[in-house]
Structure formats: C-alpha cells, structure tokens
C-alpha cells in the first residue's frame, strides 16, 4: 500500500526557511517521480515542484523557482523540499504526491491536474507570518 507522509511545516517569519519532508513507504520509491503541491485557503491546489525517479533536475513552478530546492534520498525513502526566502503568499498546506504516470523534467511535468494523482499525503501546514 502506497503511503506518503509529509512533515516539517510550521510557522515561520517572512524571509525564513523551512525544509519539508515526504516519507514514502509501501512502494519502491526509486521507481517513481514525486511531486509537491500546495493549496492555500480558497484557492485551487497547485503544483510547486517535482523530481524524477532518478533525481534529475527538478521542476519548479515560477512561484518558488530560485527559492526552493527539491531533492530525494531513495535509499532512505525520503523526498525533501527546502524553501528559502519565504513569503506570506507561500502560506498553504503542502502535499507530496505520486502517480505511476508522473513524468517530470526541469521544464515539464505530467499529469498537470492534481486530481489525476492517485496517492497523496495528508499535508503539512506552512504559515509565513510576522
């Protein structure tokens, strides 16, 4: 059974940093690309970043590009999203997701629609506020 569990969220001041973790179990992580999404109150879930199964150059959305680093530890069953220079608009619940069809390069990912992903974690809240 595929299981994803996020952690590492919290309250941080603008300009601060957080590293979110996604613990994967129940499947061979090294066979799957992993995506990160976020959902702010009243807004649709949006893609933030993704990384291929081999850990190639990740994709970053324009909203986090240059401020985030996504990397994975397949042996440890973990995927990490490091976020720096956090802004109030980064406030959201952050989710990691997997799907056997997820294809991710540094400029493109598919599926584009969050509802098409078949496995999600429960999410971790990130609040950026002074």
Give the gist of this structure.
This protein is 0% helix and 46% strand. With 130 residues, the chain is mainly β.
General description of the model:
With 130 residues, the protein is an all-beta fold. Strands 2, 4, 5, 6, 9, 12 and 13 form a seven-stranded mixed sheet that branches. It is built from no helices and 13 strands.
Topology:
Blueprint (H helix, E strand, L loop, with lengths): L2 E5 L2 E3 L5 E8 L8 E6 L6 E6 L7 E2 L7 E6 L4 E6 L8 E7 L4 E2 L4 E2 L8 E2 L3 E5 L2
Parallel strand pairs: 2-13
Antiparallel strand pairs: 1-3, 3-8, 4-5, 4-9, 5-6, 7-8, 9-12, 9-13, 10-11
Characteristic key phrases:
seven-stranded mixed beta sheet, 130 residues, mainly beta, four-stranded antiparallel beta sheet
Topology, number of strands? 13
Number of continuous helical runs = 0
Which segments are poorly predicted (pLDDT under 50) over 5 or more consecutive residues?
A: none
Q: Can you give the helix content as a percent range?
A: under 10%
Strand-pairing-aware structural class: mainly beta
Intertermini distance: 40 Å
Portion in strands: over 45%
Radius of gyration, taken over Cα atoms and rounded to an integer in Å:
13 Å
